[in-house]
Amino acid sequence: MYSRVVRTRLSSISIAILAAVAIAGCQSTSPICCPTAFSSDSAVCCPPTAGDIAGVRAANDAFYAALNEMFVGNITPMEAVWSHESDVSQLGPMGGRIVGWDAVGKEWRREAALKLGGKVVAENMQVVAGPCMGYTVTEEVGENMTADGKPVEVRFRATNIFRKEQGGWKMVHHHTDLSAGLIGATGEVK
After folding, report:
1. What is the signed CA dihedral for 84, 87, 88, 93, rounded to 10 degrees?
2. Which domains does the chain possess?
């Protein structure tokens, strides 16, 4: 009985690992390529190419350039860096969860209209990339402005997820910490 339960759990874990790898772009089911959770083999199933890493890094840089443009009311670069598919999502500093490009794009246009000013940069960035998807983990550092021109410090942890689409690497998810300062300055919370 115990061994059947262990085999069932191992089988479930193996299926979950293989599903995650397939979603990330690795189609191999080789145990050498895709070790089980209990294997000491730490092989990467689909090692990134230098181009994958550079592409995700460039997409992340383009996002922060677009973010700073959005702070002064220019939404065009932000619309260009995002995937316009229904599976994109955002969990921003005002809270809430936004799903689908229509809703995410609407939120970015709303925020652009606030013209918060300031500048935010990505620091201490880690890049992980594969042939189809990649992500960055970073710290967003800088400041925005309140309606009456007072600075609001920005210091968030952020995760950005990108997918390779026909037009290159596009953002599919952005997640930051909540910002009590921005919520207080704008009076908005989701």
Report:
1. 140
2. 1-46 (no CATH), 50-186 (3.10.450.50)
